[in-house]
Amino acid sequence: MNVRRTLLLGIAALGVAALLQSEAMAFAAIVVLLLAGLAWYTGRHILDRVEYSRSLSRRVISWGGEVELSTAVANRKWLPLMWLRVQDGWPNAVTPLGFALDATHTPSTGTLAQALSVRWYQRVRRHYPGLCLERGVHSFGPARLQAGDPFGLTTIIQELRTRDEIVVLPKILSLPPEALAHGRPLAGAPSRTSLLRDPASLIGIRPYRAGDPWKAVNWRATARTSELQINEFDHCAEAEVLILLNLRTFESTWQRTDPELMELLCVVAASAASALAEEDLAVGLRSNGPIVNQRDPLSIDPAPGSLPEILDGLARIILTTATPFARTLQAELQCPTRPAEYLVVTPSLDGGITPLLLALKRERPICLVLIGDPGAADGVDELVDWRLPRDFDWRDKDALALA
Predict the structure, then answer these.
(1) Residue 274 backbone phi and psi in degrees, to 5
(2) When comparing pLDDT for 250 and 398, which is higher?
(3) 266 close to 273: Cβ distance less than 8 angstroms
(4) What CATH topology corresponds to 177-197+236-396?
(5) DSSP conformation class of 79
(6) Could you report the per-residue pLDDT of 371-397, keeping only the tens digit for each?
(7) Rounded to 5 degrees, what angle do the CA atoms 201, 207, 209 make?
């Protein structure tokens, strides 16, 4: 029963009470009219000066980290909210801890439902933790407020279109020590390609400065001087490494993208970038995968301290068909300036990329990581330095099983 019907019922009852000269009926009719008036006023002003806000404990989160969503409802008027329902969008990629979400028609989003009562000039805060186990950009919102009078005669709905985003970085795994051990391949020797500076290029020792890696601490000099001393190496031609990431999981456009394989490729690229950055190398990354809200593929030139930008870029890569990796290699071959070394991460050597890789290898050292079975690289074993199985379960591992 709505307010109009209640009002008409009260007027009719008041008229009948006058005809029958019934004081009890007249009193009941007046009560009904007062309730209808209260419901009408409440319906018009129940959400006036009501504020709903959400805040996130962090905007950039490492894989496996937690984020806390805090909500606040403020009622800045004398009229209390006897009941209020808040429905706020919650990404399904963030696992709720200690509470459940309501299902929606959108598979990527659930609903955080709250039911509360707010007195006059009161603020109510609530906190909801979540676990981030999926790389990407995830948004909270929009929100929907629903309130009404205590008698259920009126219901007012207000839509809040604001959204809040978080960026979940890809998981970083450790690399085997031999994967980045120094030592250029000798002629005819099956040694691995290096991506680190020569330890023999030590040019001196200097005092410790904030941000220096602990691996470079010279403990003998530290013990002798009673102050932290750092080994200083020559910044030779190996100071820059560009990671080339192939995210084209299938060569045919009609085939569907393999999301698990794309996630593994991002994990390998992030782990390699992190390991190289720890060695004070200038790391860059180019890929053929599109990123959210941008038309061009991911491209970051090698630079000192570029790891946060690389991880953020990998987090923003979307699961869709990537452009042919051959275009990325051709653009690199035509580039007049090239880094000292390349690290290529690819799920296959199909699509005409083998001749381009061989041409690039004639000009710069290349370390190639193949995500696939050993048989996938028959005839071009000289290109492949490391292999990783496609079914490698990176979610439960701490290190990449490169072989």
Answers:
(1) -65, -45
(2) 398
(3) no
(4) Rossmann fold (3.40.50)
(5) S
(6) 986 554 444 667 888 999 999 999 999
(7) 100
Give dist(CA 185, CA 192) in Å, integer. 6
Pairing state between β 366-371 and 164-168:
unpaired
pLDDT tens per residue across span 63-110 = 999 999 999 999 999 888 889 999 999 999 999 999 999 988 888 899
Strands 240-245 and 282-290: parallel
List C-alpha distances in Å: 350 to 247, 319, 324, 394. 12, 20, 10, 24
For the purposes of burial, counting CB atoms within 10 Å of the CB of 238, is it exposed (0-12), middle (13-18) or buried (19 or more)?
A: buried
Q: At what angle do helices 23-45 and 3-20 cross, to 10 degrees?
A: 160
Let me know if 226 is exposed, middle or buried by CB neighbors in 10 A (0-12, 13-18, 19+).
exposed
* pLDDT, tens digit, 9 for 90 and up, residues 212-226: 666 678 888 888 888
The whole-number pLDDT of residue 299 equals: 93
Is the separation of the CB atoms in 217 and 208 below 8 Å? yes
Question: How distant, in Å, are the alpha carbons of 184, 240, 336, 362, 366 from that of 340?
Answer: 13, 5, 13, 12, 9
Structure confidence at residue 197 (pLDDT):
46
Query: Does the pTM exceed 0.85?
Result: no
32 to 12, 27, 121, 151: CA distances (angstroms): 11, 9, 28, 11
In the predicted model, is pLDDT for residue 40 greater than 90? Answer: no
CATH tag for 50-168 (out of 3.30.360.10, 3.40.630.30, 2.60.40.1530, 1.20.1740.10): 2.60.40.1530
- d(CA 351, CA 329) in angstroms, rounded, equals 12
- 367 and 325 Cβ atoms separated by less than 8 Å: no
42-69 tens-digit pLDDT: 777 788 899 999 999 999 999 999 999 9
Which residues have CB under 8 Å from 124's CB, separation 6+? 72, 73, 74, 116, 118
